[in-house]
What does this fold into?
Amino acid sequence: MSTIQKLSSFFHLLETAEPDLFATYLATFDQLFAADSEAEASIARRIKDWCQSRSDVERNLENEICTMVVGNKSSKPSDVARSYNKRLKENRDRLAYWSPAESKTPVQQKILGY
It folds into this structure.
């Protein structure tokens, strides 16, 4: 699997998983941002390291990688880093406004005490 496929899988999971999967780790998102000149492989390694210390995210990412089919393309490191950081920031901001109560049914809210 190419590095671009791994990055795409990470973002697909980030953008489609239940928000609570990532919301717990929102405070650590700054560890994921890349330098402007950082190469794809370095960014992918950063994601892998970050996910390994968060087993629930890592498990879901492995499933995502196994099932996702993405086309391979090559980009300049600055374009990859800029696009990566933009998507990461958009998702961090989205998760910052998410509330666990928003995604639960009234019965779930009552059980969970929301």
